[in-house]
Amino acid sequence: MRKLLIVGVLGVLVVSLAACGDSSSDSETAALQLKADKYEIEQIEKVFHQAMTTKDIDLMVSLWAPNATLTVGPDLTAAGVDEIRQFWLENTAFAPETTWVTDHPAYKMEITVNGDRGTLHFECHFVNYETGEVEAITGTDQDVARVDGQWLITNMVGGTTELIP
Q1: What is the pLDDT of residues 6-44, one digit of tens each?
Q2: Count of CB atoms within 10 A of residue 110's CB?
């Protein structure tokens, strides 16, 4: 009888620990997935600034979902990658004579994730590398989504912002 009681208690203990292990494992997996998603979304900002600085239009367009939209100001919305490409090609930052690098204050970046969708906010500081002067400051709010396993911009609204210490 005593042996049966010990085996029963051990059995209950093993089942209890196994159940706890599964929920812990699930929450750890979810936390790791969230961390990975935020990292991948953060890469959008890094590649965006790289594309702006190097004037690499193909790299810039690679960040956008096929049916994405880009809105700047009240009168300009580009829809789809072809119109978005054209917008950037006509933008001062992409002009061959422009000697700007883009920088960003990392502490102002904000990322949210909800499943396969999220948001990304960051600022761009355009600095003339020949003069050291800040030429323009913009801010963007973006909707992002996982499309075929890759995080892409689905909607971006850009505007001006102020430098505040």
Answers
A1: 444 445 444 454 455 555 788 999 999 999 999 999 999
A2: 10
Closest by alpha carbon to 140, among 85, 58, 69? 69
Strand duo 110-114 + 64-72: pairing: unpaired
Tokens of 86: 């054209």
Each residue of 1-14: pLDDT tens digit? 555 444 444 454 44
159, 121 in Cβ contact below 8 A?
no
C-alpha distance from residue 149 to each of 41, 51, 61, 117, 152 (Å):
12, 21, 17, 12, 9
The CATH class of the 43-160 domain is alpha beta
* Token code pair at residue 43: 């890469």
Residue 117 host element (H or E): strand 117-128
Helices (H), the chain: 2-54, 57-61, 80-89
The Cα–Cα gap between 56 and 48 comes to: 10
Q: What CA–CA distance (Å, rounded) separates 14 from 89?
A: 64
